[in-house]
Design goal:
The chain is an all-alpha fold. The protein is 71% helix and 0% strand.
Length: 286
């Protein structure tokens, strides 16, 4: 009788995992792309309509559902509506100022919440979550009540600015806190091992690492301020921002310049997003 010699430490023949059952694979390959493109179309269709109607050659000065043809007249007469231009100037004045202040305060708050544990830490987190989750109509009415009772600032541009700073700070703080919590503290320890003081470590190591979150928080605060209507409507008084003016103009019909300005703002946002992607890609390759 012959026998086959085997090594005692030889591993048994490997048996691969059983293939997973994938039912209707062809249907899945068809359904997922179609569903994705339909969702993209659903989300982007209002923007495409706005861009198209910014070139609508309407016979009058108010927008109509009918598309009459293409024209560049409304782009050439962009500032032909006095009230709309003033409202847009107000929004473009309030948005960057409120975003800068909210970014500075929100960054400090996000650093404190993400890096340190102190008495009242959980309470501050809860307040930030509450400020984000509370309905805007509640926040707007409470801000109006505070401004009326305090009577320190007249209802108008100043109260709009203070309100926009207030509701933007939590969004910046949450964004920066998430970035801080994901930082590798070994980099800061290495800087201190190389005799860098805390200030130098912050500006040379910590700040560059959290810079993308700070920029994201600033852009978020800017956009929130630019398109806010509910809270601004409570605290604006006789001052009109771009969303408030557009809402009031809907009663008699929107001028085509609204679509032109909306297209410009949308294009600026797309350019900023593309520029950010390019910068991040170049940093990753460097």
């Amino acid at each position: 009788m012959s026998s086959v010699a085997t090594r005692p430490d030889a591993a048994p023949p490997s048996v691969g995992p059983a293939p997973l059952y994938q039912p209707h694979k062809r249907i899945t390959r068809f359904f997922l792309p179609v569903f994705t493109w339909l969702m993209i179309l659903y989300l982007a269709l209002p923007v495409f309509v706005m861009i198209l109607y910014s070139f609508n050659d309407i016979p009058g000065e108010r927008q109509t559902p009918k598309f009459w043809g293409l024209t560049l007249h409304w782009w050439q007469d962009l500032f032909g509506v006095a009230g709309l231009t003033d409202a847009l100037k107000t929004s473009l004045t309030v948005a960057p100022i409120s975003a800068l202040i909210a970014t500075a305060l929100g960054t400090l708050l996000g650093l404190a919440l993400g890096r340190y544990r102190f008495r009242g830490h959980a309470g501050v987190n809860f307040i930030i979550f509450l400020a984000i989750a509370v309905p805007e109509i509640v926040l707007g009415s409470s801000l109006l009540s505070m401004f009326v009772l305090v009577r320190t600032f007249p209802i108008g541009l100043t109260t709009i600015l203070l309100s926009h700073i207030g509701f933007s700070i939590p969004f910046v703080a949450v964004t920066v806190r998430a970035r801080v919590q994901g930082l590798d503290t070994a980099l800061e320890d290495a800087a201190q091992d190389l005799f860098a003081n805390p200030v130098t470590t912050f500006f040379k190591v910590t700040l560059p690492l959290i810079a993308p979150a700070i920029l994201a928080g600033f852009l978020l605060a800017f956009v929130l301020s630019l398109d806010d209507f509910v809270i601004t409507n409570f605290v604006s008084g006789s001052t009109q921002t771009f969303p408030i003016w557009v809402f009031g103009a809907t009663r008699i019909g929107l001028p085509p310049q609204v679509n032109v300005m909306g297209t410009i703002l949308f294009s600026a946002g797309v350019i900023a997003a593309v520029a950010n992607v390019i910068v991040q890609h170049r940093r990753a390759r460097a």
